Automatic annotation (TrEMBL):
InterPro entries: Emycin_Estase (IPR007815), Hydrolase/PRTase-associated (IPR052036), UCP036794_erythomycin (IPR014622). Coiled coil: none annotated. One of its GO terms (biological process) is response to antibiotic. The lineage of its organism: Bacteria, Pseudomonadati, Bacteroidota, Cytophagia, Cytophagales. This is Erythromycin esterase family protein. It comes from the Bacteria. Pfam families: Erythro_esteras (PF05139).
Length: 434
């Protein structure tokens, strides 16, 4: 790890903002100001407090600053069903539990959980008082749903645009020998020809005709993004199968391209809240990721927009518990999160005071000098081994990576949908009710 130049002997307690309830988010709301892009991170994909604090921040942004939608690190087809449900569209399931049960791709707990259910309930209630064009949206940015997106395109275009449906069917025919994404990626390592031309032709066709698809709310957007997932999904799996390819960059470039399409759909005054892991929303240029040639969503959004339009918010904790798997595809389990290692962001914040705190990285703040150097910053993925903790830290210049940081000293595991949480989980009780 690079040189660490944070001095724990300096008293920074006056620079920390208290973080106990929703009112304590006022300094963050002030820092956000008139920004149009607010990116909210998480240090794991299975921590209760990361989801509920993001939900509370999102609620305030929607109510107080007129944000248009939430875009998350999830698959477009499944998230679009949440979008339809919170907008009360005909034909949607009666309960949010039924909607979230559609999330059957591992790791299911990322979105099929009671914390997301509570947020969706609040969004539906909020939207019930708004006109159709003003309802808050909920969208997925990720690239993994290659097959689901192709199937949706064919089914929809057969009704809306039979000519374009023929292009979609040819794309399906191209992928048919492989059966699923993993087989396609493996086959690409042996074949010179891919389905690239077919999916690009499909994307071009759907984009040209998307404005005509108006038989259902947001039908044009849905068709365009599913076509985009098909094109970039093919590229993603092809890159995974190649030597020297950077599938990470393909994925994050896709997420930003999807984000831009969503913002264009919502108009020039649109504002968006993004929920993703810290490794996606924290500027990669302020981490060791840049040494490997990796970029990410936070970096790209900063590069594409004015500084005052973008706010990146990181999250972290000292210890607790988390939902994760021991290997890819393994059953989810609750795991301990041991105390953070020495000289890490989380250990230093704990040593100042074992309390939750909000950090705002203003230019004139003493926090700038203290946290501008390299520090380890914990990043837990869907696969986790607490006994190999040192491998989970990303060298980070904290004040360059984020504009603000929420530190929760001790966190709890997320509540997967199939496990009933203790207490009454309602929109009124998060983030503090479980």
């Amino acid at each position: 790890m690079a040189e660490i130049n944070a001095d724990k002997t300096i008293d920074l307690t006056k620079e920390f903002h208290r973080l106990q309830n929703a009112a304590d988010l006022d300094p963050l709301m002030e820092r956000i100001g008139n920004a149009r892009y607010v990116l909210l991170g998480e240090a794991s994909h299975g921590t209760h407090e990361y989801y509920t604090w993001r939900a509370e921040i999102s609620r305030r942004l929607i109510q107080e600053k007129g944000f248009s939608c939430i875009a998350v690190e999830g698959d477009w087809p499944d998230c679009f069903e949440i979008n339809r449900w919170i907008k009360g569209e005909p034909g949607t399931p009666e309960s949010i539990e039924d909607v979230l049960s559609l999330f059957d791709r591992w790791p299911t707990w990322m979105w099929a959980n009671w914390e997301v259910a509570a947020l969706a309930e609040w969004l539906r209630k909020h939207n019930s008082n708004l006109s159709p064009g003003k309802k808050i949206g909920f969208y997925g940015l990720d690239v993994y749903s290659l097959w689901e997106s192709m199937e949706i395109i064919v089914e929809y275009l057969e009704k809306e645009d039979p000519e374009a449906a023929e292009y979609a069917k040819k794309t399906i025919d191209c992928f048919e020998p492989y059966g699923e994404e993993d087989n396609y990626a493996s086959a690409l390592s042996m074949l010179k020809q891919s389905c690239k031309d077919e999916v690009l032709r499909l994307l071009q066709t759907v984009r040209q005709r998307a404005p005509q698809y108006d038989s259902q709310p947001e039908a044009g957007l849905n068709a365009e993004i599913n076509a985009l997932v098909t094109a970039n999904g093919e590229k993603y799996y092809r890159t995974m199968a190649s030597f020297g390819g950077n599938s990470w960059n393909v994925r994050d470039l896709h997420m930003v391209e999807t984000l831009n399409s969503i913002m264009k759909h919502h108009g020039p005054d649109a504002k968006v809240i993004v929920w993703e892991h810290n490794t996606h929303i924290g500027d990669a240029r302020a981490t060791s990721m840049a040494d490997r040639g990796n970029l990410n969503v936070g970096q790209l959004v900063r590069e594409q927009h004015k500084p005052e339009e973008v706010v990146l918010v990181g999250f972290g904790s000292y210890e607790g518990s988390v939902i994760a798997g021991s290997m890819w595809g393994a059953p989810m389990q609750e795991m301990r999160v041991p105390p953070a290692i020495e000289h890490s962001v989380e250990e230093m914040l704990h040593s100042f005071s074992p309390e939750n705190k909000l950090l705002i990285f203003d230019e004139n703040s003493a926090l700038q000098d203290h946290f501008r150097g390299w520090l380890g910053h914990r990043a837990i993925g869907v696969v986790y081994n607490p006994d190999r903790e040192r491998g989970n830290y990303v060298p980070t210049k904290l004040t360059s990576r984020y504009d603000a940081f929420l530190y929760i000293d001790k966190t709890r595991a997320l509540h997967p949908l199939h496990l009933k949480p203790k207490g009454n989980l309602t929109p009124e009780t998060y983030p503090f009710g479980i």
